[in-house]
Amino acid sequence: MDLPIQDLAMSLQRAERAQAPLQPFSEVYPALSSAQAYAIQQAWLSLKQAEGGSIVGRKIGLTSKAMQQQLGVDQPDYGFLLNTMVVQPGSTIALAELIQPRIEPEIAFWLAEDLRGPGITVEHVLRATRGVSASFELVDSRIANWRIKLVDTIADNASSARVIASEQIVALDGLDLSNIHVTLKCNGATVEEGVGSAVLGHPAAAVAWLANKLAEFEVSLLAGQLILPGAMCAAVSVASGDTFQASFSQLGDITLSFS
């Protein structure tokens, strides 16, 4: 039977608004392909754009072995970042707005030039990047209990919910992004640690992967956009009253609280 792409996109929209997660699409439609899942994601993006949302960047997900093992998948995926998803560092987020959020520290890329695949390499990415900064991504599955396969998280905008990026942008001169270390603390206690090389060997390799993947759809990464290349460690569940601090070597600290 034909896949009801628009209906599935609308179900994600309703699930997000009502904080009422869905049965996995992969269970309802066992033959669902990655291409169909990206079509659902695109339809959901169109719904959000019709309500005034605008793209400020892109995210790559599942780029580290830790995240792939945590969710039982074997390849990256990607999603969109909208102006409505941006939260300022140091803010407090109400958990009532979300379903089952988890927090990830990432190295945010700020583009100064467009990147259009195919053929984009790490070197192309570094030349096109204005600088990098400390960031968090808040992921949140609209699928019940994070019971997801790759196609579920693709359709669900790569499980993205909020982006929190420091605007203290650090130039790339002298930085070895693969060796940047992060310590993630919750209420003062270390809960995870990671390094840039966990992200496809080098965070810029994830950005290159995305530029080349998007070229299949004749889409480019654009100057001025923010790109999140993926988590440096496993994502951590959050609870009301938690305050998280991520400390990045050479990039500084970023904090976020929950109520």
UniProtKB/TrEMBL annotation:
What domain of life is recorded for the organism? Bacteria
Q: Which residues belong to any copy of the Fumarylacetoacetase-like C-terminal domain?
A: 73-255
Pfam families xrefs: FAA_hydrolase
Q: Which GO terms describe its cellular component?
A: cytoplasm
Gene3D superfamilies in UniProt:
Fumarylacetoacetase-like, C-terminal domain
Question: Is Transmembrane a UniProt keyword of this protein?
Answer: no
SUPFAM superfamilies per the record? FAH (SSF56529)
The molecular function terms of the Gene Ontology recorded here are: 2-oxopent-4-enoate hydratase activity
Q: Per UniProt, which keywords does this protein have?
A: Lyase
* PANTHER family, sorted: 2-KETO-4-PENTENOATE HYDRATASE (PTHR30143:SF0), ACID HYDRATASE (PTHR30143)
- Protein's name according to its UniProt entry: 2-keto-4-pentenoate hydratase
Q: From what organism does this protein derive?
A: Ktedonosporobacter rubrisoli
